Amino acid sequence: MVHRSVRSPTDDAHGTAPDAPSAIRLAAVGMCLVGVCYGLARFAYGLFVPAFREDFDLGPTATGAVASGSYVAYCLAVVAATVLTPRLGARRVAVAAGTVATAGTALVALAPTSAVLGAGVLLAGASTGVASPPLAHAVARTVRAARRDRTQAVVNAGTGLGVAVAGPVALVVQDSWRAAWAVFALLAAATTFWAARVVPPARDDGASVPSLLPRPLLPVRAGRLLLGAAVVGLASAAVWTFGLDLLVTEGGTGPTTARLAWVLLGVLGVLGAAAGDLEARLGPARTWTTTTVALAGATAVLALAPGTPALTHPAAAVFGGSYIAMSGLLLLGGTRVYPDEPSAGVGIAFLVLALGQAAGSLALGALASGTGLRTAVLVAAGVGLLGALAPPRTS
Question: pTM of the entire structure?
Fold first, then answer.
């Protein structure tokens, strides 16, 4: 790194900055902000694909293209948030994330055409890119070292919380998807106000603000970390984009039963908060291999038996827990590979993750149009198994 040394607030005698919130409060608001940005604004799209497909006449290619666009918007946003967080502070950028999520979900709720729907999904997807860097920066700058990894993992598990909330909302409103997205917008707005009160400023002073890009841009351990992020993105795109549609169209599962699988995916995803503790017990390589194989296996089960709830529902739960755990490992890895610029490390890792998901959604949508949805999802499972062979090295 070629910026002046940063003395983290966690280096003082008390372990936190004087105005820093407790780790519990920061973890709570961070988890909820990640929940509305990832679980509602971004990944809830897959939950409503059957309804969108019917109302807007979307085929697999168009469905994948919309999801891919959401991930591309994320990529652009995460670059901006990574650069702006040390300069503007964690609070301002976190509030911006909530504001974008609110606007995106509201636009989806009001969408009169497929073009407006796509614009809303893109805007909502961008919020996730804005959210992760400031939260990672705030935790790294204000939480004691002994609690830092656990707090980062808990915040990251907000994706599961958001998905777990989206499922019951969808069950209540049934086919009234506009009402569901209106509820998402209200939840996003409320969380944004909370973040404005709780997330610490965590702004680096002029002497410690890094250059636009970390130097070196790719440290020694970054290659394996980014390869792992790309593989997770490619492998997970199938379930996030087409999972529920697979159960309904290929498996003949009723909408209510299929949405229950989504609820289980989110509820078990919250257990991904234990990623840091699991890594401490098993070691980084073994934890990565275990979670990658679990994600790939769950994806394969969904493809092979989409009409058997006794198999698909546990598989969805395993997918949720393993995905959140893997993204948590990528987050922790980013803060370790770039210890002086944690927001940059998380931003780069999640940028590559989203690029993988964008490419995966687009490619799998095209593949599904030619060979069928089940084949496309099986291909994604195979990609996940390949990822188990190359665990990231971050310590």
Answer: 0.77
